Amino acid sequence: DGQFWLFEPxxxxxxxxxxxxxxxWSAMHPYTYNGWIRHIVRKGxxxxxxxxxxxxxxxxxxxTQNALSATHRALTKLDGKLHAKADTEKFAVAGVSMGGIIxxxxxxxxxxxxxxxxxxxxxxxxxxRKKPKGSLYGARITLRDISSIxxxxxxxxxxxxxxxxxxxxxxxxxxxxxxxxAPENKNYVIxxxxxxxxxxxx
Length: 202
Hints:
Layout: E1 4-7, E2 16-22, H1 34-42, E3 46-50, H2 63-77, E4 86-96, H3 98-108, E5 119-123, E6 154-160, H4 169-177, E7 186-191
Parallel strand pairs: 2-3, 2-4, 4-5, 5-6, 6-7
Antiparallel strand pairs: 1-3
Helix pairs in contact: 2-3
C-alpha cells in the first residue's frame, strides 16, 4: 500500500507545480500513460502517480484512501533535496476512468492533509451506475457527494463520443452536481470521433 511513482523535470531550480495522475482500473503501472506523463513533465510539472490498486482483487471501497495515502507519501519526498521541491500553491489532480471518480472523491473531502486542489481534470469517469462492460473494468466504486468541492476549483470533465465502457453518465453527474463550482470555472468537453481519414480516429 502507498506505492507511487514520481516524475519530475531534470535539474529543477525552483518549486514546481504538482499534478496527481490517477490511473484507470487495472492500469497500475505508469507505462500505460507514458506519453501523457512525459508531456506534463516537459511542461515543467511534477507528476505523482499513486498506485491506488494493488491488484484486481483490490476492494473498490478502499481505493480513494489508497490514493490519498500514496499521495501523502509522495509529497514528503518533494522537499528539494533528492527530488524537486513542490509548489503546493499549484496542486492539481487528474484522473482517468475509475481514477476520474477517485479524483472527484478526493476533491470533495475535507481535512485530508493535502494542499488545496486548485484544478481538477476528470477524463472518461465511470462507471458507478451500472455493471461495467468488459473484464478489464471489473469493479464499481462509490461516488461521494461532490457538491462541496470549492467554488474556486477549476474543473474540466472529458468524455468520448463513442465510449461504450465508461459512458457519459458519471461525467454528466459530476459536472451537474459539482454545483458549488462557479459556472465559469468548469467545462464539459466531448471528444468526437473522426472518420474523414484513414485510419479513423475513434
